[in-house]
Amino acid sequence: MTQIPSCAIWITGLPASGKSTIARALKPQLEASGLTVEVLESDEVRRVLTPDATYSQAERALFYRALALMGAKLVAHGVTVIFDATATKRVYRDFARNLIPRFIEVAVECPLEICMQRDYKGTYQRGQRGESSTVPGLQEPYEAPLHPALTVDTTKMLVNEAVQNIVALVRQNVRP
After folding, report:
1. Cα separation values, 99 from 71, 72, 93, 170, Å
2. Are strands 103-109 and 8-12 parallel, antiparallel or unpaired?
3. In this structure, are residues 147 and 104 in contact, taking their beta carbons and an 8 Å threshold?
4. Which helix (H) or strand (E) holds 150?
5. How far is residue 65 from each of residues 16, 49, 57, measured CA to CA in Å?
6. What does the buried/exposed string (b/e) look like for 89-106 if buried means 16 or more CB atoms within 10 Å of the residue's CB?
7. Which of 137, 86, 132, 88 has the alpha carbon at shortest distance from 116?
8. Going residue by residue through the chain (176 aa), what tens digit of pLDDT does each one get?
9. Residues 6 or more apart from 50 whose CB is under 8 A from it?
10. Rounded CA gap, 103 and 147, in Å?
11. E-assigned strand segments in 18-149
12. CA–CA separation, 156 vs 22, rounded Å?
């Protein structure tokens, strides 16, 4: 089998849309293809970069530039990166796309009402109680990708099907 070169896969969508579930299931499947894979999960990275996060526009812009740079460095060293991050603005994901030659954007679609029902972190509840004023889809607009490489509707597609579609996309679009 021909080795697939490293790439970046940005999984974007509203909070609680299914991004993390897909990322967790995708990692071992890509590793089974012989890739070294790292998941850059936004909440985990944010705890280090901005431990007292305000989610201001300036802080988000800085955070996503730093996340993109981390991903670009990893990809340059042969690691396939899965970005598990909402990245509310297209410009954040476009910055990463411009840094990383082999970049795949996956849009995870799920209606806001369903995301709110799935919200195990309490993000939407904090927004509804007024404890947060920057929840994507609630108070902050979310800019969905205009031309994603793949769209996954998590109300219609099972996780394993989504993962297999992403793996097929990686094999098809990332040539040695």
Report:
1. 9, 6, 10, 18
2. parallel
3. no
4. strand 150-153
5. 23, 11, 12
6. bbebbebbbebbebbbbb
7. 137
8. 446 789 999 999 999 999 999 999 999 999 998 899 999 998 899 899 888 888 888 888 999 999 999 999 999 999 999 999 999 999 999 999 999 999 999 999 999 999 999 998 888 998 899 888 888 888 899 999 999 999 999 999 999 999 999 999 998 876 55
9. 59, 62, 63
10. 13
11. 36-41, 79-84, 103-109
12. 14
Alpha carbons 126 and 121: distance in angstroms, whole number: 9
- Tell me the two tokens of residue 114: 């369903």
Residue whose structure tokens are 């300036």: 58
Question: Which tokens hold the place of 153?
Answer: 């509707």
- Asked if residues 6 and 80 have their Cβ atoms less than 8 Å apart, the reply is yes
**CA–CA separation, 45 vs 147, rounded Å?**
26
The residue type at 68 = A
Residues in the chain: 176
The pLDDT of residue 1 = 44
Please report, as a single letter, which amino acid is at residue 139. Answer: Q
Separation of alpha carbons 3 and 171, rounded Å: 10
Q: What is the rounded CA–CA span in Å between residue 26 and residue 149?
A: 16
Tokens linked to 140:
């902050």
